[in-house]
Amino acid sequence: MGCFTGDTLVPLVDGKSYSLQALAKGEREIIVYSCTQTGKIVAAKATAKLTRRNQLLLKVVLDNSEEIKCTPDHRFMLRDGSYREARDLEPGTSLMPFYSQTDKDGYTLIQQPDSGRWQKADGIIPPSDIPSSEWLESQLSGTVPSFPGHRTVIDHHIDHHNLARAEHRSSNLVGGANHKVVNILPLQEKQDVYCLTVPEYHNFALTAGVFVHNCGMSAIKTPFVADQLEGKLKKIRLDIEAAIPVGFEQNTDIEKAVVNWQGWRDFKELHPGVQRLDGKSMKQLGSLGGGNHFIELCLDTDNQVWLMLHSGSRHIGNQLAKCHIKTAKELAKLAHTTLPDRDLAYFVAGTPEFAAYWRDLQWAQNYARYNRDIMMARFKRIVEKHLAGGKSFKPLLSVNCHHNYAEKEVHFSEEVYVTRKGAVRARTDDYGIIPGSMGAKSFIVKGKGNHDSYCSCAHGAGRLMSRSKAKKQFTVDDLVEQTKGVECRKDKDVIDEIPGAYKPIDQVMANQSDLVEVVATLKQVVCVKG
Q1: What residues act catalytically?
Q2: How far is the C-alpha of 262 from the C-alpha of 441, rounded, in Å?
Q3: Hey, which residues does 34 pair with through a beta bridge?
Q4: Average per-residue pLDDT for the chain
Q5: What is the enclosing helix (H) or strand (E) of 476?
Q6: Is the pLDDT of residue 518 over 70?
């Protein structure tokens, strides 16, 4: 992910704004403001770090006169909850706003974007997350550097019994201004840049008044260990299968988080051919699908428990693709374009058809990401029920990366559209997931930023043979043998996913050692297939 200059200010829930550089030097866990997928501001734990050195920058100017210096690839949260890289922002783009003010009693008030309601800041912090007075003292005693021409805001008006009795002395005040882009200006200067990792929500507020994506990226590392799983694997698998629809199934009951997803606001803008699918799309949000999609409970080499899943944009994504492919074929026919194969029909950048396709593609990718978020939340609650008596845990690491998608990027000094089919992005410090088969190892990786590969790496083992050939070549007995030690279905309907139908994952990883470094090696102990 892209990052910000060290003087960028971040408001903490203790009522003060700190520079990212100061927070990184402190090396302490902090509590920031994050925005959920349903547009609600919550408190979230985060850590700061120096992420990249000597980076080219651009400046994003907001309508409240705030200026944000960042790398061109940092993603800003739009008003609809989706993200867009800084270089792709345009004047007038509406960003997710962060409004705060101080009431007459000195309490910090936060305006909730989803409802417009003003709320005391201490009301959004779970009691277990409120920092102790010792924590506050350690923050206050830290050395906070100053920067020429910039304000580092530290407010010592703190009441340790009422955490929010502090004033955000920033330009982020009540009013209609602080979330629209006025200008985007490339800069000639280079600086070291910083960012936050926010494991639970993956975004945080800036004092400038907007929300941005964080450096973390669906797999999560839990605080649990292997011994705690003893005798519980089958119960966990059955609970997963009961809570998350697989194959062609969809949800019977639609949960609030699904109904409130902000992506629905743009559904009417999608291709006319999918407008009848609004109900089905809502019911499928939070479902696994079929094929090589999976939900797995894994152990790493330190016997730490991980949750991992792989899914996509479900039926709506497939139908959007079909609609646009049909349009592309019709255009090729009208233009008398000679193609080796009709399926090679394409859109030309700058045309209305291309713009419509790109808009729908981005929507489908956001749908896919939130689909994984919904399933992971259910999966997490199941594990909490069996391993922690229902008590919620905070992920130690969270990764959510797209497989099979397209993005606009800059490579070799040229802006291009990159389609990663069978691949994931592997820029420097990008986290990714590279699964093997249902009986083999999987890997959590960090990208090395290899430009010769367009900063990409393989997204999995890849098939050695087709599904039909696997069904002819292997038996249920073969499946039982090759998935020994894994709690999973072992019947004829999943033979096409047998490990023997996939390439050896160790060889795949060895072949791309110049593209990624391994952060964790996982072995599944529970596997639910689509």
Answers
A1: 459
A2: 36
A3: 42
A4: 84
A5: helix 476-482
A6: yes
Q: Which residue has the tokens 């939130």?
A: 370
The model's pLDDT over 320-331, given as tens digits with 9 standing for 90+, comes to: 999 999 999 999
Q: What is the rounded distance in angstroms from the CA atom of residue 112 to the CA atom of residue 157?
A: 24
- Give the three-class secondary structure for 228: helix
Q: Where are the alpha helices (DSSP H) in 290-419?
A: 314-334, 352-387
What is the DSSP pairing of strand 108-111 with strand 118-120? Answer: antiparallel
Non-local (6+) Cβ contacts of 358 within 8 A are: none
To which H or E segment does residue 154 belong? none
State how far the Cα of 177 lies from the Cα of 63, in Å rounded to an integer: 6
* Identity of the amino acid at 32: V
Terminal CA-CA length for the chain: 31
Print the SS3 string covering 378-403: HHHHHHHHHHCCCCCCCCCEEECCCC
Amino acid in position 7: D
Whole-number pLDDT of residue 125:
64
> What is the DSSP pairing of strand 67-70 with strand 41-62?
antiparallel
The token duo for 186 is 């490339």
The residue among 217 and 211 whose pLDDT is bigger is 211
Packing angle, helices 352-387 and 233-243, rounded to 10:
140
Can you give the pLDDT at residue 156? 31
> Tell me, what's the pLDDT at 130?
45
pTM value?
0.68
Q: Map residue 303 onto helix, strand or coil.
A: coil
Beta bridge partners of 110: 100, 119
Question: How many alpha carbons lie under 13 Å from residue 45 in its C-beta half-sphere?
Answer: 16
Is residue 412 packed enough to be buried (19+ CB in 10 Å), middle (13-18) or exposed (0-12)? Answer: exposed
CA dihedral 259, 261, 263, 267 (to 10 degrees): 0
